[in-house]
Amino acid sequence: MKQTERGFLLLTSHLGDAQSKPLTVAQFRTLANRVQMMEKPKDERELNMSDMAYLGYDGETAENILYLLSRQEQLDYYIMQGKRKGCYPIARNSTFYPATLHHRLGLDAPGCLWAKGDSRLLEYPAVALVGSRDLHPENEDFAYMVGYQAAQQGYVLVSGNARGADRVAQDACLEAGGRVVSIISDSLAEQTEMPGILYLSEDGFDIPFSSLRAVSRNRLIHAMGRCTFVAQCTLEKGGTWNGTVQNLKKRYSYVFCYKDGSAASKALEQMGAGLISPQALYSIDALTSLDESLF
Question: Is the dihedral of CA 184, 99, 232, 258 positive or negative?
Fold first, then answer.
């Protein structure tokens, strides 16, 4: 692992220490911007307090950044523990880091992803699926069709492994012989390795579920697909709604909502989403070509 990759891990991962304070995405973005503007390159030695002062950091923040970077032995131990559980890191400057996250999120992309499964799945074209946990029968059918057609048409399905739309689509894709990238908000180490599925997680491989992690991972799901399908959501409420609105504002990927006549789908259409019937899924290429022309 290159030293710069280790730097990303040190700055953005807990490394098994719940008391540590790794940088948030916003803090990491700020640090990266400031370092890029430094007059002298700093890749020949470690940063020190003088560098931190030059970069405009107060004493407490500077001390935290330097502490995070000093955890070399802790990092080695954490990587070893992750390897025993089938988990490994993908730093944002790694060859395997998803290019779509670089392109669409920029410095808002995670400094490191933790993975379990076959990272080669990140090399294939993908579509994303989001939706509610409690589905109406017709919306459940739509989620199933997204997963099934993704498999049939050679797309990797990106979703979030939650109960409801996520699991319906993922199971349909795998049953049809397809491949799934599942971005989870609970412990990566506890996921069971299966053929055809890659699990990804922010923060670390042993971090338990939290609502904050569930919200944060939504941007990754929306940014990794050539387009994002919305099986069902509730107007102005919940993670599916908020994640989709954020996508439409920041244009991570083109959004297609199931045309179910709901107030939520109509509102998302007003924001720029397309409304589609299940029949439109028979040619995902036609839908993703819209995405390529817009993005």
Answer: negative
The C-alpha atoms of residue 260 and residue 61 are separated, in whole angstroms, by 49
- Residues of each domain in the chain carrying CATH 3.40.50.450: 119-294
Q: What is the pLDDT of residues 99-116, one digit of tens each?
A: 999 999 988 899 899 999
Q: Say how far apart CA 208 and CA 187 lie, in whole Å.
A: 5
CATH of domain 119-294: 3.40.50.450
The answer to whether the beta carbons of residues 181 and 224 sit under 8 Å apart is: yes
Identity of residue 184: I
The Cα–Cα gap between 79 and 89 comes to: 8
- Could you give the CA distance from residue 88 to residue 115 in angstroms, rounded to a whole number? 5
Half-sphere exposure (Cβ direction) of 33: Cα atoms closer than 13 Å: 10
Longest distance between any two alpha carbons in the chain, whole Å: 62
The model's pLDDT over 115-167, given as tens digits with 9 standing for 90+, comes to 999 999 999 999 999 999 999 999 999 999 999 999 999 999 999 999 999 99
Helix axes 238-250, 263-271, angle to 10 degrees: 20
